Amino acid sequence: MSLRELRLKAGLTQKELSLKSGVNIRQIQRVELGTSRMENVTLVNAKRLSDALGVKIEDLIDEKALP
Description:
By secondary structure, the chain is mostly helical.
C-alpha cells in the first residue's frame, strides 16, 4: 500500500500524520505526490511514520519500486 492509502486507512490528514509522527508535512506531501520515494526517506522518519500509522516499516515500501 502507498503512504497515502495507509494514511487514509488510518483516518488521518497529512497534517495530522505530520503532527503524530513528527515528520515534516512537506516530506509526506512529496512522497504522496511521487516527487520523492519512500525508499529515500531516512530510517528515523520511516520508523516515525510506521509507528504513527500502526504498520511495519516494510508496509511503507512499495516492493514494485525495488530492483
